[in-house]
Automatic annotation (TrEMBL):
Record family assignment: Belongs to the sigma-54 factor family.
Name of this protein: RNA polymerase sigma-54 factor
Protein's UniProt keywords contain ATP-binding: no
UniProt xrefs under PANTHER family: RNA POLYMERASE SIGMA-54 FACTOR (PTHR32248)
Any GO MF annotation of the entry: sigma factor activity
Ranges in coiled-coil conformation: 181-208
Domain RNA polymerase sigma factor 54 DNA-binding: from-to ranges: 351-509
Listed GO biological process terms: DNA-templated transcription initiation
Annotated stretches, region: Disordered: 49-84
Pfam family, one: Sigma54_DBD
NCBIfam families per UniProt: PRK05932.1-2 (NF004595), PRK12469.1 (NF009118), rpoN_sigma (TIGR02395)
Organism classification: Bacteria, Pseudomonadati, Pseudomonadota, Gammaproteobacteria, Moraxellales
GO CC annotation: DNA-directed RNA polymerase complex
Comp. bias (Polar residues): 54-84
Length: 511
């Protein structure tokens, strides 16, 4: 074997720290991006946020009139920042100059699908854009828990010391729904342990005494609390209603035979209760108006409201795609610290400023690239799903990540990252970008139909069906075949279950 020395030229892709940062920012949600920006602002003195308030804008205009020591260096820094944006603008961009100033993308014949983010959304206009939504005062309140509410009522009710200990054990055995989860035997044992721990000279507590205390707890608010099952909970709420409430007596009579109601045996239920069809229907309507989980109203059910990343609206028969300016970061390099950097200075302080200057520039560029990609992908998705915006979910077109990746000249993994936890606000509601991707099912005419559209059609068929003769899975399959959609019965059953729609036997109503 002969050894030799030679040169070879090859190219390879390496993940630089800047590229890794860009990829990580791309998959962050708006909330996570806000947290990441705050971390960068705390750690990098050369990165600053622009205050979009009138006071902040006024102070920025005053700062622009101040002459710093190195004005030429400051100007070069701003020129370097502007290099991060694409300088090439198509000749036809002048026809949408007004839309560019507003940060809009119009989906018409005059604008291509792969519109660049810089063509329609400049960094400076983003920073000084006015908020899309008005700020409102947060009037949300957090309610007390079911246990604190019951203990508050317990302190206002006269109890003997032993009964109070039993009541405390009963309240501890109630779950967040308001139901008594522990058995009476377990509560009796817990009460006896409490009495022994307090060294009270009291004889053993009887089970009947515990039942009496439980009845008193069941008279607390909310009605139905302390019940051991759904039937008892509904009966407690019916007894708490005024006696002159219509159908109250009939509802109590019907709940005494609730096992027939569960299996939907209406003829036998009418015979057992001696109620006619109209009286049974009124009693059933009264029972449906009750709360099956009385304890949940005391939970903090505050939901995380998603903030849209992209907004689409229709103006003059055109769908316009716009990034939500409320959540766009308004960042820039601190001009004062940038003016302190000296070119020929190799001191530790100067190197510190140089390093953080480069980090700030890279971070701003990565954030801008994130918004460019997000607008580019969202514009392409909206163009594909115009029928959904016009006519609803039944008109959803089949779409996969590869379709968007080919049109936007991006990798499928990039499209997947940019559509994860990103939300699009449309006239039909707020949707995650992933919602617009779905598999396809062949049609009898040789075309394709989206699985989302099929689900919407099944949901509409069930809503319009006769409740006395609900549509079975076979009937739904036949209706879809009549509409030209070739789908199997098991697929229809899978779609029905994904929509949380019960089977035809469970949906059947005789009243």
């Amino acid at each position: 074997m002969k050894l030799s020395v030679g040169l070879r030229v090859s190219s390879s892709l390496s993940l630089t720290p800047q590229l890794q940062q860009a990829i990580r920012l791309l998959q962050l949600s708006s909330l996570e991006l806000e947290q990441e920006i705050q971390n960068q602002l705390d750690s990098n003195p050369l990165l600053e946020a622009i205050d979009s308030s009138p006071e902040g804008q006024a102070s920025d205009s005053l700062d622009n009139n101040v002459d710093y020591q190195s004005n030429e260096q400051q100007t070069s820094d701003y020129d370097s920042l502007s290099d991060f944006q694409d300088s090439a603008v198509s000749d036809g961009a002048s026809s949408i100059a007004l839309d560019e100033q507003m940060g809009l993308t119009r989906l018409g014949e005059d604008l291509p699908v792969d519109t660049q983010w810089d063509d329609v959304f400049s960094h400076q206009s983003t920073a000084l854009a006015s908020p899309e939504f008005d700020e409102r005062e947060d009037t949300r309140t957090v309610s007390d828990s079911i246990w604190s509410e019951l203990r508050w009522q317990l302190n206002l009710t006269p109890f003997s010391p032993v009964d109070r200990i039993m009541a405390e054990c009963i309240i501890d055995g109630i779950d967040e729904r308001g139901y008594l989860e522990a058995s009476l035997e377990e509560l009796l044992e817990a009460t006896q342990n409490q009495l022994d721990a307090l060294d009270l000279d009291i004889e053993e507590v009887e089970l009947s005494e515990l039942e009496v205390v439980l009845k008193r707890i069941q008279n607390f608010d909310p009605p139905g609390v302390g019940a051991r099952d759904l039937s008892e909970c509904l009966c407690l709420q019916l007894r708490a209603l005024p006696e002159h409430t219509p159908s109250r007596r009939d509802a109590l009579n019907m709940m005494a035979h609730h096992e027939l109601l569960l299996i939907n045996d209406i003829p036998k239920l009418m015979r057992q209760t001696n109620l006619d069809q109209d009286a049974l229907r009124s009693a059933l309507a009264l029972v449906k108006s009750l709360d099956p989980y009385p304890g949940l109203k005391f939970q903090n059910n505050e939901r995380e409201h998603q903030v849209p990343d992209v907004i689409v609206r229709k103006k003059n028969d055109h769908w316009e795609v716009q990034l939500n300016t409320d959540i766009l970061p308004k960042l820039r390099v601190n001009s004062y610290y940038a003016s302190m950097i000296k070119r020929a200075d190799q001191s530790e302080e100067n190197q510190y400023l140089r390093t953080h200057m480069q980090e700030a520039r890279n971070f701003i560029k990565s954030v801008d690239e994130r918004h460019k990609t997000l607008l580019k992908v969202s514009t392409c998705i909206v163009q594909h799903q115009r029928a959904f915006l016009e006519h609803g979910p039944e008109a959803m077109k089949p779409l996969i990540l590869r379709d968007i990746a080919l049109e936007t000249e991006l990798h499928e993994s990039t499209v997947s990252r940019v559509t994860t936890q990103k939300f699009l606000l449309t006239p039909r509601g707020l949707f995650e970008l992933k919602y617009f991707f779905s598999s396809h099912v062949a049609t009898s005419t040789g075309g394709e139909c989206s699985s989302t559209a099929i689900r919407a059609m099944i949901k509409k068929m069930v809503q319009e069906e006769n409740v006395k003769k609900p549509l079975s899975d076979n009937a739904l399959t036949e209706k879809l075949h009549e509409a030209g959609i070739d789908v199997a019965r098991r697929t229809v059953a899978k779609y029905r279950e994904s929509l949380n729609i019960a089977s035809s036997s469970e949906r059947k109503r005789l009243l």
